[in-house]
Amino acid sequence: MSAFDPEGDDWAGGWILQVLKRNHSDALFKWLPLEGEGWFSAKSEAGIDYRSLQKALLSELFEEADRITSASLRRLAGPEAEDRGYVYFSEVQSIPGLDLTTLDRLWSAYSQGRFGFSCQARLLDSLGGRYDRLWTRIGWKNDGIWTRYPKAFNWSLEAPEGHMPLINQLRGVRLMDAILNHPALVSRRGAKPLK
After folding, report:
1. Per DSSP, which regions of 49-189 are E strands?
2. What is the set of domains in the chain, with CATH numbers?
3. Class of residue 136 by CB neighbours under 10 A (exposed 0-12, middle 13-18, buried 19+)
4. CB neighbours (10 Å) of residue 108?
5. At what angle do helices 62-77 and 97-109 cross, to 10 degrees?
6. What one-character DSSP code corresponds to residue 22?
7. 128-165 pLDDT, tens per residue?
8. Structure pTM?
């Protein structure tokens, strides 16, 4: 694993770790002495421990990872978001950029680059910023009908690119737009904000 940077998100490193976990979990602990909790750096400005997220992603337990991500976003948005059970778009700007970047990096690293906020932003940009097209492209809407959570979602690497993590699209595009246009994620992509 010396060829990979624990501060980065090279999905080849995540893929190697997942293959080891699936086929030779004893060998995995050579690199992950903490019971397979993760190899990638997972820093938090808010003091959140992302080991459970990294462990779920490493184990390809994507539904669990999505729930952890959602809970993390609520915690990052503050006590009111935690109490109500969801994040308002207006709360996103106060979310520490380091934490959003960590969430994005981990999803990317453990999905062969198929999932994460940066992936969703790239797809949205390729669709001319049209959310109505994005929902279908990432499998959140089929034949004009919203995909039912959680059973109708595909919780595997075979899911459409950009399928995870889920953002509550029923609240409209504003929350997702605020996340994808958070300055830290825009900087990470090396792009301009999405229109």
Report:
1. 141-142, 145-146
2. 11-189 (1.10.10.1770)
3. middle
4. 24
5. 170
6. H
7. 999 999 999 999 999 989 898 899 999 999 999 999 99
8. 0.92
